[in-house]
Amino acid sequence: MRIGILGAGGMAEALGAGWAKAGHDIVVGARHAGRAADLAARLGARAGTLADAAEHGETVLAALPHTAMNDVITSLADLLAGRALIDCSNPIAPGPDGLVLTTDGGPSAARRIAAAAPGAHVVKAFNLCAAGVWAAHTEGLAVPLCGDDANALTLVRTLVTDLRAVPLDAGGLDRAGYLEATAAFVIGVWFAGGDPRTVLPPLEQSTH
Ligand SMILES: NC(=O)c1ccc[n+]([C@@H]2O[C@H](COP(=O)([O-])OP(=O)(O)OC[C@H]3O[C@@H](n4cnc5c(N)ncnc54)[C@H](OP(=O)(O)O)[C@@H]3O)[C@@H](O)[C@H]2O)c1
Protein backbone atom coordinates (compact mmCIF):
# COMPACT_ATOMS: atom_id res chain seq x y z
CA MET A 1 0.00 0.00 0.00
CA ARG A 2 1.18 3.57 -0.63
CA ILE A 3 1.26 5.30 2.75
CA GLY A 4 1.95 8.96 3.47
CA ILE A 5 2.89 9.95 7.00
CA LEU A 6 2.40 13.55 8.10
CA GLY A 7 4.85 14.22 10.92
CA ALA A 8 8.09 12.60 12.02
CA GLY A 9 7.57 12.22 15.77
CA GLY A 10 6.78 9.35 18.10
CA MET A 11 3.57 8.03 16.50
CA ALA A 12 4.93 8.44 12.97
CA GLU A 13 7.91 6.28 13.92
CA ALA A 14 6.03 3.66 15.95
CA LEU A 15 3.30 3.00 13.38
CA GLY A 16 5.55 3.63 10.39
CA ALA A 17 8.06 1.02 11.58
CA GLY A 18 5.42 -1.70 11.67
CA TRP A 19 4.08 -0.77 8.26
CA ALA A 20 7.55 -0.55 6.74
CA LYS A 21 8.27 -4.01 8.12
CA ALA A 22 5.09 -5.23 6.41
CA GLY A 23 6.51 -4.00 3.09
CA HIS A 24 4.45 -0.87 2.45
CA ASP A 25 5.66 1.99 0.26
CA ILE A 26 5.99 4.92 2.66
CA VAL A 27 6.75 8.63 2.25
CA VAL A 28 7.40 10.53 5.49
CA GLY A 29 6.56 14.23 5.27
CA ALA A 30 7.51 16.80 7.87
CA ARG A 31 7.86 20.55 8.11
CA HIS A 32 11.61 20.15 8.74
CA ALA A 33 13.31 18.26 5.92
CA GLY A 34 16.04 16.90 8.19
CA ARG A 35 13.53 15.28 10.57
CA ALA A 36 11.65 13.66 7.69
CA ALA A 37 14.94 12.40 6.26
CA ASP A 38 16.12 11.00 9.59
CA LEU A 39 12.89 9.09 10.21
CA ALA A 40 12.65 7.90 6.61
CA ALA A 41 16.20 6.53 6.88
CA ARG A 42 15.32 4.64 10.07
CA LEU A 43 12.18 3.19 8.43
CA GLY A 44 13.74 2.43 5.06
CA ALA A 45 11.21 4.82 3.53
CA ARG A 46 11.40 8.00 1.45
CA ALA A 47 11.28 11.54 2.81
CA GLY A 48 9.48 14.57 1.46
CA THR A 49 7.39 17.55 2.35
CA LEU A 50 4.01 17.28 4.04
CA ALA A 51 2.48 17.79 0.59
CA ASP A 52 4.63 14.99 -0.88
CA ALA A 53 3.37 12.58 1.78
CA ALA A 54 -0.26 13.60 1.28
CA GLU A 55 0.05 13.18 -2.47
CA HIS A 56 1.80 9.81 -2.21
CA GLY A 57 -0.53 7.99 0.16
CA GLU A 58 -3.68 6.15 -0.76
CA THR A 59 -3.71 6.06 3.03
CA VAL A 60 -2.32 9.02 4.99
CA LEU A 61 -1.53 8.99 8.71
CA ALA A 62 -1.85 12.41 10.33
CA ALA A 63 0.65 12.05 13.20
CA LEU A 64 0.50 15.67 14.29
CA PRO A 65 -0.48 17.44 17.50
CA HIS A 66 -4.17 18.23 17.63
CA THR A 67 -3.29 21.91 17.91
CA ALA A 68 -1.51 21.84 14.52
CA MET A 69 -3.99 19.57 12.78
CA ASN A 70 -6.52 22.06 11.48
CA ASP A 71 -4.01 24.35 9.75
CA VAL A 72 -1.94 21.52 8.28
CA ILE A 73 -4.92 19.51 7.03
CA THR A 74 -6.62 22.59 5.58
CA SER A 75 -3.47 23.43 3.64
CA LEU A 76 -3.35 19.86 2.23
CA ALA A 77 -7.09 19.43 1.65
CA ASP A 78 -6.93 19.24 -2.15
CA LEU A 79 -4.16 16.63 -2.07
CA LEU A 80 -6.00 14.56 0.54
CA ALA A 81 -9.19 14.23 -1.51
CA GLY A 82 -10.09 10.57 -1.95
CA ARG A 83 -7.46 9.40 0.55
CA ALA A 84 -8.09 7.35 3.67
CA LEU A 85 -6.92 9.81 6.33
CA ILE A 86 -6.06 8.26 9.69
CA ASP A 87 -6.59 10.52 12.69
CA CYS A 88 -4.70 9.19 15.73
CA SER A 89 -4.84 12.48 17.62
CA ASN A 90 -5.86 12.99 21.22
CA PRO A 91 -7.27 16.47 21.80
CA ILE A 92 -6.47 16.45 25.50
CA ALA A 93 -4.77 18.81 27.91
CA PRO A 94 -4.23 19.03 31.66
CA GLY A 95 -7.21 20.46 33.54
CA PRO A 96 -7.75 21.33 37.20
CA ASP A 97 -8.91 17.77 38.05
CA GLY A 98 -7.01 15.74 35.46
CA LEU A 99 -6.91 15.50 31.69
CA VAL A 100 -9.71 17.19 29.77
CA LEU A 101 -10.90 17.12 26.19
CA THR A 102 -9.98 20.37 24.49
CA THR A 103 -12.90 19.79 22.14
CA ASP A 104 -15.39 19.64 25.02
CA GLY A 105 -18.74 20.95 23.93
CA GLY A 106 -17.83 20.96 20.24
CA PRO A 107 -17.19 18.52 17.40
CA SER A 108 -14.64 15.75 17.91
CA ALA A 109 -11.10 16.21 16.59
CA ALA A 110 -11.90 13.66 13.91
CA ARG A 111 -14.96 15.63 12.78
CA ARG A 112 -12.87 18.84 12.66
CA ILE A 113 -10.31 17.09 10.47
CA ALA A 114 -13.09 15.83 8.19
CA ALA A 115 -14.39 19.40 7.90
CA ALA A 116 -10.87 20.69 7.11
CA ALA A 117 -10.46 18.15 4.29
CA PRO A 118 -13.98 17.43 3.05
CA GLY A 119 -12.83 15.12 0.25
CA ALA A 120 -10.79 12.86 2.53
CA HIS A 121 -12.18 9.74 4.21
CA VAL A 122 -11.24 10.14 7.86
CA VAL A 123 -10.81 7.09 10.06
CA LYS A 124 -10.18 7.52 13.79
CA ALA A 125 -7.73 4.85 14.94
CA PHE A 126 -4.61 4.13 17.01
CA ASN A 127 -5.33 6.91 19.55
CA LEU A 128 -5.84 4.72 22.62
CA CYS A 129 -2.31 3.35 23.12
CA ALA A 130 1.03 5.04 23.60
CA ALA A 131 3.60 5.14 20.83
CA GLY A 132 5.72 2.68 22.80
CA VAL A 133 2.88 0.16 22.68
CA TRP A 134 2.52 0.46 18.91
CA ALA A 135 6.25 -0.03 18.60
CA ALA A 136 6.39 -3.11 20.77
CA HIS A 137 3.32 -5.04 21.89
CA THR A 138 0.50 -5.02 19.37
CA GLU A 139 -0.04 -8.75 18.94
CA GLY A 140 -3.70 -9.48 19.67
CA LEU A 141 -4.44 -5.88 20.69
CA ALA A 142 -7.93 -4.69 19.67
CA VAL A 143 -7.85 -1.42 17.74
CA PRO A 144 -11.18 0.43 17.54
CA LEU A 145 -11.88 2.14 14.21
CA CYS A 146 -14.49 4.82 13.54
CA GLY A 147 -15.18 5.92 9.99
CA ASP A 148 -17.85 6.33 7.34
CA ASP A 149 -16.16 5.14 4.14
CA ALA A 150 -16.09 1.39 3.51
CA ASN A 151 -12.94 1.44 1.34
CA ALA A 152 -11.02 3.60 3.81
CA LEU A 153 -12.01 1.28 6.65
CA THR A 154 -10.81 -1.72 4.65
CA LEU A 155 -7.41 -0.07 4.09
CA VAL A 156 -7.04 0.82 7.77
CA ARG A 157 -8.10 -2.68 8.89
CA THR A 158 -5.25 -4.02 6.75
CA LEU A 159 -2.81 -1.67 8.48
CA VAL A 160 -4.09 -2.87 11.86
CA THR A 161 -3.57 -6.52 10.99
CA ASP A 162 -0.12 -5.70 9.59
CA LEU A 163 0.77 -4.74 13.18
CA ARG A 164 -0.58 -8.18 14.23
CA ALA A 165 -3.36 -6.35 16.04
CA VAL A 166 -7.11 -6.90 15.60
CA PRO A 167 -9.45 -4.30 14.05
CA LEU A 168 -12.55 -3.56 16.12
CA ASP A 169 -15.27 -1.77 14.14
CA ALA A 170 -16.57 0.94 16.45
CA GLY A 171 -19.08 2.73 14.26
CA GLY A 172 -19.15 5.79 12.07
CA LEU A 173 -17.10 8.95 12.41
CA ASP A 174 -19.85 10.43 14.58
CA ARG A 175 -18.64 8.00 17.29
CA ALA A 176 -14.98 9.11 17.12
CA GLY A 177 -15.57 11.50 20.00
CA TYR A 178 -16.15 8.48 22.25
CA LEU A 179 -12.64 7.20 21.42
CA GLU A 180 -11.24 10.64 22.19
CA ALA A 181 -13.08 10.80 25.53
CA THR A 182 -11.92 7.27 26.33
CA ALA A 183 -8.32 8.37 25.74
CA ALA A 184 -8.77 11.34 28.08
CA PHE A 185 -10.12 8.98 30.75
CA VAL A 186 -7.63 6.10 30.48
CA ILE A 187 -4.54 8.28 30.03
CA GLY A 188 -5.69 10.34 33.02
CA VAL A 189 -5.99 7.18 35.13
CA TRP A 190 -2.53 5.99 34.01
CA PHE A 191 -1.00 9.41 34.76
CA ALA A 192 -2.57 9.23 38.24
CA GLY A 193 -0.90 5.86 38.84
CA GLY A 194 -4.00 3.68 38.31
CA ASP A 195 -4.70 0.86 35.87
CA PRO A 196 -7.79 1.57 33.74
CA ARG A 197 -7.93 -2.06 32.60
CA THR A 198 -9.22 -2.98 36.05
CA VAL A 199 -12.36 -0.92 35.42
CA LEU A 200 -13.60 -3.36 32.79
CA PRO A 201 -13.30 -6.98 33.91
CA PRO A 202 -14.15 -9.80 31.48
CA LEU A 203 -17.91 -10.37 31.05
CA GLU A 204 -17.49 -13.92 32.42
CA GLN A 205 -16.93 -12.36 35.83
CA SER A 206 -20.51 -11.08 35.79
CA THR A 207 -23.21 -13.17 37.52
CA HIS A 208 -25.76 -12.19 34.80
N1 LIG B 1 2.84 9.71 21.61
C1 LIG B 1 1.85 8.90 21.97
O1 LIG B 1 2.06 8.01 22.81
C2 LIG B 1 0.49 9.03 21.35
C3 LIG B 1 -0.44 8.02 21.54
C4 LIG B 1 -1.69 8.11 20.93
C5 LIG B 1 -2.00 9.22 20.15
N2 LIG B 1 -1.09 10.22 20.00
C6 LIG B 1 -1.44 11.36 19.16
O2 LIG B 1 -0.63 11.27 17.99
C7 LIG B 1 -0.36 12.57 17.50
C8 LIG B 1 1.15 12.72 17.29
O3 LIG B 1 1.76 12.52 18.54
P1 LIG B 1 3.34 12.27 18.65
O4 LIG B 1 3.58 11.76 20.02
O5 LIG B 1 3.84 11.54 17.47
O6 LIG B 1 3.88 13.78 18.61
P2 LIG B 1 5.37 14.28 18.42
O7 LIG B 1 6.33 13.19 18.72
O8 LIG B 1 5.48 15.55 19.16
O9 LIG B 1 5.47 14.57 16.84
C9 LIG B 1 4.63 15.52 16.28
C10 LIG B 1 5.03 15.78 14.84
O10 LIG B 1 4.19 16.83 14.36
C11 LIG B 1 5.01 17.88 13.83
N3 LIG B 1 4.38 19.18 14.00
C12 LIG B 1 4.09 19.83 15.16
N4 LIG B 1 3.51 21.01 14.89
C13 LIG B 1 3.45 21.11 13.54
C14 LIG B 1 2.96 22.10 12.67
N5 LIG B 1 2.40 23.24 13.13
N6 LIG B 1 3.07 21.89 11.33
C15 LIG B 1 3.61 20.76 10.86
N7 LIG B 1 4.11 19.76 11.64
C16 LIG B 1 4.02 19.95 12.97
C17 LIG B 1 6.31 17.78 14.61
O11 LIG B 1 7.30 18.44 13.86
P3 LIG B 1 8.59 19.06 14.59
O12 LIG B 1 9.45 17.89 14.96
O13 LIG B 1 9.16 19.94 13.55
O14 LIG B 1 8.08 19.80 15.80
C18 LIG B 1 6.48 16.26 14.68
O15 LIG B 1 7.00 15.77 13.48
C19 LIG B 1 -0.91 13.57 18.52
O16 LIG B 1 -2.13 14.08 18.04
C20 LIG B 1 -1.14 12.71 19.77
O17 LIG B 1 -2.24 13.17 20.53
C21 LIG B 1 0.16 10.16 20.58
TrEMBL record:
Keywords of the record, alphabetical order, are:
Oxidoreductase
Which InterPro entries does this chain map to? NAD(P)-bd_dom_sf, P5C_Rdtase_cat_N, STEAP_metalloreductase
Alphabetical list of SUPFAM superfamilies matching this protein: NAD(P)-binding Rossmann-fold domains
Positions in coiled-coil regions: none
* Domain Pyrroline-5-carboxylate reductase catalytic N-terminal positions: 2-91
Keyword RNA-binding appears in the UniProt entry:
no
This chain belongs to the protein called NADPH-dependent F420 reductase
Q: What is the lineage of its organism?
A: Bacteria, Bacillati, Actinomycetota, Actinomycetes, Kitasatosporales
